[in-house]
Structure formats: C-alpha cells, structure tokens
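> call design_seq(struct)
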C-alpha cells in the first residue's frame, strides 16, 4: 500500500483507483461472491438444494463469460464508458432485486444478468483506469484496483455471517445490497470523469495477434486457473458447514479468513512481480493455490478448510494480476481486448467447476472430493506457466 500513499501520487489517481475499487466491490465481491457465504444459509432455509445452487452459480458464470466477450466488442474509447457505467448500475439493481425474489426461475435470470454486467465491469473498469495510469506514468499502481475484490470479500463475510440471525431466505441479501448503493453512486460519479483520448487507448490500432509464442502458454495456463479456483471460491463455506459443523466460530468466519488473506497478500503479489518479475509471482500464486486445495483433500476437517481458505484467499488474485501484467508486457498495445480475452478464458473454464461438482454429486460423489478437479486444473496451470518466456521488467511507464 506504500505506493498508494506516496506523496508523488496525485489526488486524481487516488480518486480514480478508489472508484475502481468501489466498482469491483459492487459487481464482483457483492454481486458475485456474496452468493458463496449466502449459499449454505439458503440451503438451510430451504430456498433450494445444493444442486440448484450449483445451477445458479453456473448460470452466473455463463453470464460473466457473455459480459467479458461483450466487453471485447465494445472496448473502443467512445463505447467503453457508457457501457461500463450502465452495467455497473444494472448490477446494483440486480443485487437489490434479489432481496425480495425467492422464485428459482426468476433467480436464474437475475444471476445471469448479474453475471453479464459483472463481466463487462470487471473488464472495462480496470482497463479504463489502467489506460489513464499509463498516460500519467503511474502504471505500477494498476494492481491496487483489485483490492476491491479482497475488501469486498471482507465486507461480505461481516455483513452476511454476523447478521445471519436477523434475516431468512432472500432477505439475507439486504445488508450487502444496501451497501452496494452508495458504492455504485460514488464509482459512477468518478469513473465518468476519466478522460482518455481515442489515440491514447491501447489496442485501437494494433494488428498484433493476441495468441503468439509468448502469450499462448500463458493463456493455456490461465484456463487451468479458472477451473482450479472456482470450486473452493464457490463452495468452501458450504463445505465448512458439511465437514466442520461442530466448530461454529470457524465455520461462520471461514469466508472472513479467505477475505483477510486476499487483502493482506494482494499488495504482496504486486510487489513480488515488480521485484522478481510477474512470471515468478505467477508461479508462486499457482503453487499456493495447489497447496490450498490439496490441504482440504488431505485433511477433510476444520484444519483442511482453514488451510484452503488461507492459501486460496491469499493467492487467487495474485494469479489474475500477474497474468494480466505479463500479457500487457508482451503486448502493450492490446489494451482492453487483451484483458477481455483473459477474463473470457477464465470465465469459460469457471463454467466447468459447478457443473462438474453437480454431476459428480449426482453420481454418488461428495462435494469434498469434487475439489480434486480443481487441484488437477491448478497443477495444469502451474506446469504451463514454466513455458511462459522469462522477461526482465514489469514496468510500462
């Protein structure tokens, strides 16, 4: 966080980064990941089964993929901001509507729309801010935007688990939904002020292929990251209720542990990539995720759940930030299209996670053992990262 508080950083840069953080809290931490700590309560309340919960998650991830692909098409400077701001507002409205809707078919549609708008904002908001930072020689701050995910996960945990006795059913969305309103207004107001001239936007005139000998291994590895992280980040609190129900304190706070690990380690990945190259940081983030998922498979109890929470929470955003910065290093002119492709790939493989878990459970497997699919996917990503060419700098300033 030192870079962010440095006196050399302008007030404008701080405001724009905070606006990006607020946007990611709304669409990704609340709009998407609040469903994870809510899921065991919804099942407990009889709203739907774990298989139906997997269907809701899958459709949300499908929407996320659609949104990311949409962002590819509308990534030009004159299209980017209107779509970004509209999607952010719609995402907030989806979260609010979920407070009063318990019909499963209606929830499916809301989760789909939530995913679409999340995908659009998750691509375009960091991309817009990064382009502004590049033109003002402050690219090294770009990773701080993703603090919105970790901060939002902490807020999710506190607002959902600590108010669990006050609400039932769909009303459990209320605490996080109300928080999303002022954050949306703040983010829309300041993101709308960012001005980038068309010729400044990366990728608007580049003819370089997105897939080349430098980036192809990175993309193949990233496919493993999408499948590998999504099972614990969707079902870990539910698994905690299944295997460690007697440890009430830790079960109720497992998502908080995950979120705190994410918040603490995100600046570390930012620093590690700048100090030793992002390829080094990326290998480390894959290895930590492998340890996390293996931990809960080896120790199917509260110890394993906490190992998974700490190691997954600490490392999954490191994979995202490091992969995007490596791609930006190899193809600095690709801009929003580059991020959209990476996120689309991530989102596409995420779709397999809940679907595989549902299929496995329906055929006699357990939720715990379905995490094996994620472990294999992360090992795949780790191995392919060794094929990514070494580079010497992460600075684009």
């Amino acid at each position: 966080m030192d870079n962010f508080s440095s006196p050399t950083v302008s007030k404008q840069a701080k405001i724009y980064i905070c606006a990006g953080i607020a946007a990611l809290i709304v669409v990704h931490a609340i709009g998407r990941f609040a469903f994870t700590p809510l899921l065991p309560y919804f099942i407990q309340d009889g709203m739907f089964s774990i298989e139906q919960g997997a269907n809701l998650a899958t459709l949300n991830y499908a929407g996320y993929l659609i949104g990311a692909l949409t962002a590819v098409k509308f990534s030009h400077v004159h299209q980017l901001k209107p779509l970004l701001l509209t999607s952010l507002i719609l995402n907030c409205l989806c979260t609010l509507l979920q407070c009063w809707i318990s019909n499963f078919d209606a929830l499916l549609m809301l989760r789909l729309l939530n995913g679409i708008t999340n995908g659009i904002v998750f691509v375009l908001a960091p991309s817009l801010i990064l382009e502004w930072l590049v033109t003002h020689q402050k690219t090294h701050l770009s990773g701080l935007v993703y603090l919105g995910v970790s901060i939002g996960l902490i807020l999710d945990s506190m607002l959902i688990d600590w108010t669990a006795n006050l609400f039932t059913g769909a009303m459990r969305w209320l605490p996080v939904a109300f928080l999303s309103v002022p954050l949306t207004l703040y983010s829309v107001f300041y993101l709308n002020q960012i001005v980038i001239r068309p010729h400044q936007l990366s990728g608007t005139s580049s003819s370089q292929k997105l897939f080349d000998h430098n980036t192809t291994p990175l993309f193949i590895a990233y496919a493993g990251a999408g499948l590998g992280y999504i099972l614990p980040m969707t079902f870990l609190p539910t698994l905690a209720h299944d295997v460690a129900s007697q440890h009430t304190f830790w079960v109720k706070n497992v998502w908080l542990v995950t979120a705190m690990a994410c918040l603490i380690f995100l600046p570390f990945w930012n620093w590690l990539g700048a100090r030793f190259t992002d390829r080094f940081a990326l290998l480390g983030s894959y290895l930590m995720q492998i340890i996390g998922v293996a931990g809960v498979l080896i120790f199917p109890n509260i110890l394993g759940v906490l190992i998974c929470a700490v190691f997954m929470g600490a490392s999954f955003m490191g994979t995202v930030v490091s992969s995007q910065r490596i791609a930006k290093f190899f193809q600095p002119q690709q801009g929003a299209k580059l991020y959209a492709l990476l996120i689309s790939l991530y989102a596409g493989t995420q779709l397999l996670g809940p679907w595989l878990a549902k299929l496995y459970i329906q055929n006699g497997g357990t939720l715990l053992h379905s995490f094996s699919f994620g472990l294999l996917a992360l090992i795949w990503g780790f191995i392919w990262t060794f094929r990514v060419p070494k580079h010497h700098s992460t600075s684009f300033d």
